[in-house]
Task: inverse folding
């Protein structure tokens, strides 16, 4: 997608696309509760956050902007906006920002409660990039880059000095919600945690659970012991122990012993692997790694992809990044300024009886005297426009409604034009550096597009697209209810 197309048309709009994110980490009062998916509610967008124009319709209504058409499928919960080219989305989101997806409260452990919370961190390495300052292959497309790994981090933290992570064990586990699913820790040691995996199953006496070709049946319970039957064979396992049987594992998490057998119950984890120790830096899912430091009171995951070139995993406007089918975030345009097209061409012209080397400037131009579609710049640094067949000097030449004024040295915005009347070349300087050897379109930090500067240099004719206002960008944060 080309910035020329993004800017095409008249009339500003605030965000046209919606890209998405969200997470949840809070404990349930009932350890047996399962996460429940609730339907997307139309008014969540408006009730949760002031979303820019373009998302204030129902979440399933297709937006009709030509370039950034997007059909939101999840609810937008937060918008990080007003970031210009070269800026970043550095911010920490908490429960106030993502209500229902981030947590700030207490967790229960070993009969006590402790303060806990989850946060989503976006670092200064999450940058809105342009081709003039980053990868030239971006051309006129703005891109969201991940300058270094770890640009996005999600953490679960226990914010209580009295909590001792080393006390977590199979006898005293810690249960939290992680991306909408219950996560049970049965061990923690500095840069590693041990978690239970597989399917969490609650069985009463005589009930069974089928996994693949295997059948697990709960027979009865006694004090901290579960009597199980796997594929017709009986086994006795204490709470905290794992049964290994022909490629499956059964972990006994808890039992409820009651004199009436019909009320006896066992909580089991059943799967190919029911207990795993993960270390800081281990893979969570592709692109994401565990980040663990219990000495600092947290564990979580971070986005470990580094991408700052066009052929890497950067996001262009309209792209989204999804994590664990539970939250999304992505890159969108926050405003859509009007644009003005200009042409600068080397020439010579008779001005009031004298032939002058000039740069002819064509486009919508405003001066202190009047509005024009063509103005001449001379080597004296003065500007002239034709009135009634004669050239008159004009001052304060601005490019349309952009309020960018042409200086006597042909500077405007973050560009300067350098004419060579001997060779007939017209060079473009950006940040003091020549663009004469750059083949592709260049997008500057002010949002100006220089079309094919190498060809323009040789032809002595430069075309630029100037936005009325500097483009701004947003990160749309959404989650799946």
Result:
């Amino acid at each position: 997608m080309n910035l020329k197309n993004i800017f095409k048309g008249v009339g500003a709009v605030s965000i046209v696309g919606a890209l998405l994110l969200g997470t949840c980490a809070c404990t349930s009062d009932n350890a047996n509760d399962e996460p429940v998916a609730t339907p997307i509610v139309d008014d969540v967008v408006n009730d949760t956050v002031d979303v820019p124009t373009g998302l204030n319709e129902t979440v399933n209504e297709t937006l009709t902007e030509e370039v950034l058409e997007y059909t939101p499928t999840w609810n937008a919960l937060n918008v990080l906006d007003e970031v210009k080219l070269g800026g970043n989305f550095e911010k920490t989101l908490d429960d106030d920002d993502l209500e229902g997806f981030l947590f700030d409260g207490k967790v229960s452990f070993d009969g006590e409660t402790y303060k806990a919370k989850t946060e989503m961190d976006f670092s200064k390495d999450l940058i809105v990039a342009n081709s003039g300052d980053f990868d030239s292959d971006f051309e006129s497309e703005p891109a969201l880059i991940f300058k270094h790994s770890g640009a996005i981090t999600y953490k679960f933290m226990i914010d209580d000095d009295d909590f001792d992570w080393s006390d977590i064990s199979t006898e005293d586990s810690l249960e939290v919600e992680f991306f909408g699913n219950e996560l049970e820790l049965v061990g923690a040691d500095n840069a590693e945690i041990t978690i239970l995996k597989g399917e969490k199953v609650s069985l009463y006496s005589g009930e069974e659970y089928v996994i693949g070709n295997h059948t697990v049946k709960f027979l009865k319970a006694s004090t901290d012991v579960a009597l199980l039957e796997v594929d017709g064979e009986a086994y006795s396992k204490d709470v905290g122990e794992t049964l290994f049987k022909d490629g499956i594992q059964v972990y006994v998490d808890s039992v409820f012993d009651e004199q009436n057998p019909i009320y006896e119950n066992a909580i089991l984890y059943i799967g190919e692997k029911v207990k795993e120790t993960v270390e800081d830096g281990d893979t969570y899912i592709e692109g994401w790694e565990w980040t663990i430091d219990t000495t600092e009171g947290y564990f979580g995951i971070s986005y470990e992809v580094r991408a700052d070139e066009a052929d890497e995993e950067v996001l262009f406007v309209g792209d989204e990044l999804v994590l664990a089918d539970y939250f999304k975030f992505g890159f969108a345009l926050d405003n859509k300024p009007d644009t003005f097209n200009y042409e600068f061409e080397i020439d010579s012209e008779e001005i009031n009886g004298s032939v002058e080397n000039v740069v002819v400037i064509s486009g919508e131009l405003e001066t202190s005297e009047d509005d024009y579609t063509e103005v001449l710049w001379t080597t004296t640094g003065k500007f002239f426009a034709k009135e009634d067949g004669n050239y008159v000097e004009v001052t304060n030449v601005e490019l349309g409604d952009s309020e960018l004024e042409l200086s006597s040295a042909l500077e405007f915005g973050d560009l300067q034009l350098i004419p060579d009347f001997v060779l007939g070349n017209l060079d473009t300087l950006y940040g003091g550096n020549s663009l004469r050897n750059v083949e592709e379109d260049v997008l500057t930090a002010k949002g100006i597009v220089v079309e094919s500067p190498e060809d323009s240099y040789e032809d002595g004719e430069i075309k630029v697209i100037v936005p009325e206002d500097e483009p701004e960008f947003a990160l749309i944060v959404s989650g799946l209810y």
